[in-house]
Design goal:
Amidase signature (AS) enzymes; globular; binds glutamine
């Protein structure tokens, strides 16, 4: 248990809360095995800490009673030496665009403020099977659209590791909850960087999985050809454990795939992406990243500079494909089928008024951009062109992986920025996704791992692997985080 916790806490109960809530998955499992604490103690510690840290804004709803009940069931199984799951008694938080049956699922939007999920997402079935304890639902930018946590329809989320700075987005709640010890791990969704970018801003690990590796059934869709669910954790080992629990084929998601076995190299060859050190990347990030490269060289890790010539078109391509898909996915919120409704004189006016009253400004901007890109006359010029660019970006990666095992670049072009700094300029907000969108466009797995802080602010490095090679991200990631 951490000495840090002991020093800062005054009484016995708070020592326990602080020490338990800072533990990793294996450490909690060891605690269970040694009978230092039981699953109920763990759940209670987290619930108390959540209650005390409400000002972070990480949770939208907390399932206190259910969590304690589930933890007691796990304790019962442990006492009877019955089979346990790989996450038995491990508390987690779930981004509020992933459905947990019978609980509110708002996607961070006023339009779904009172929507109750009618079924479990595929990943929730898997977590329940592994007996993880779900503590509650985590705050996010509305419909997973945003890069700062400032676009939640309810309240903004704070960064526990960088005072006055945004936590990143859209999985702002999931990142802040892990960074603030408000859960052991969380599940987020990543369409253009929404797991990795907030993970980097909050100093935690974030994994975007290969497209199809994890079921999207029960994930409220943002852009279906890009969306993936993945874990945010305190270290790479935890990301691997959670990934193993949630991956795999789900008959309810036609794009999900069965498990694939891959070979992990004994020595990794790392490609440094040349374009990720060019225009749009802040000086501090370049300096920090150069230090990381130096460290790798000192450790005799083989590195090679790699060019992804079409990467510079990634952001433009993403903002066309994503907005097109957002505009069609969000068409269902019309005041009739789901969620809130503003009554008006005619059906068409009801549609307009409902969407005007209940959707946020940035969501409306994306819908309008997407509708424009898909409209007759512009479809070929924008949407079809973007699909072609997507193919050349996919080929860029294929060529790169002929030479190296993994690609490495900073996760974000800047350090965490201040609240309000980018909300008046959407394009500057979009720039936050510069280095994360290529992996989504190509459907590749990518992980953000925290490095030494720069100017006392968290800084993350991203590794990208060929499709289905998550195991290589974990194998190298575990070495990397110890350097
Ligand atoms: N920040 C990006 C956007 O606003 C990514 C969103 C996401 O990955 N869900 O589009």
């Amino acid at each position: 248990m951490s000495a840090k916790g002991r020093k800062t806490c005054k009484n016995q109960t708070s020592i326990l809360i602080m020490e338990i809530t800072s533990l990793r998955i294996k450490e909690i499992q060891e605690g269970f095995a040694k009978k230092e604490f039981c699953a109920k103690d763990v759940a209670e510690s987290f619930l108390k800490r959540i209650e005390k840290n409400k000002e972070i804004g990480a949770y939208l709803s907390v399932f206190s009673d259910k969590a304690i009940e589930d933890a007691k069931k796990v304790d019962g199984l442990m006492a009877e030496k019955k089979p346990l799951g790989i996450l038995s008694g491990i508390p987690c938080g779930i981004k509020d665009n992933i459905m947990v049956s019978g609980q509110k699922c708002t996607a961070g939007s006023k339009i779904l403020e009172n929507y109750i999920a009618p079924y479990n997402a595929g990943v929730i079935d898997k977590l329940e099977k592994e007996k993880s304890i779900i503590l509650g639902k985590l705050n996010l930018d509305e419909f997973a659209i945003g890069s700062s946590g400032e676009y939640s329809g309810f309240f903004p989320i704070k960064n526990p590791k960088a005072k006055g700075c945004v936590p990143g987005g859209s999985s702002a709640g999931p990142a802040a909850a892990v960074a603030g010890d408000l859960c052991v791990f969380s599940l987020g969704s990543d369409t253009g960087g929404s797991i990795r970018q907030p993970a980097a801003f909050c100093g935690v690990v974030g994994l975007k999985t290969t497209y199809g590796r994890v079921s999207r059934h029960g994930l409220i869709a943002m852009a279906s050809s890009l969306d993936q669910i993945g874990p945010l954790t305190k270290n790479v080992e935890d990301a691997e454990i959670v990934f193993d629990a949630i991956k795999g084929k789900d008959n309810m998601d036609a794009t999900s795939c069965p498990d694939v076995k891959i070979k992990t190299p004994k020595k990794f060859k790392i490609g440094i992406v040349k374009e990720a050190m060019g225009e749009g990347i802040d000086k501090e990030i370049k300096e920090g990243f150069n230090k990381v490269i130096e460290k790798l060289s000192k450790e005799n890790i083989e590195i090679e500079e790699i060019s992804l010539p079409y990467m510079e078109y990634g952001l433009a391509c993403y903002y066309i494909i994503m907005t097109a898909e957002v505009s069609s996915n969000l068409a269902r919120y019309d005041g009739v089928k789901y969620g809130e409704r503003s009554e008006a004189d005619s059906l068409i006016e009801t549609y307009f008024k409902t969407r005007k009253d209940f959707l946020g400004k940035e969501v409306k901007r994306r819908i309008m951009l997407g509708t424009y890109c898909l409209s007759a006359g512009y479809y070929d010029a924008y949407y079809l062109r973007a699909l072609k660019v997507r193919t050349v970006i996919v080929n860029d990666f294929k060529n790169a992986f002929k030479k190296v095992d993994l690609l490495m670049m900073p996760t974000t072009p800047t350090l965490p920025f201040k609240f309000g700094e980018r909300t008046s300029n959407p394009l500057s907000m979009y720039m936050a996704d510069l280095l994360t969108v290529p992996a989504n466009i190509a459907g590749l797995p990518a992980i953000s791992i925290p490095c030494d802080n720069i100017n006392s602010l968290p800084f993350g490095v991203q590794f990208i692997a060929p499709a289905f090679h998550e195991k290589n991200l974990f194998a190298f990631g575990k070495v990397f985080e110890k350097l």
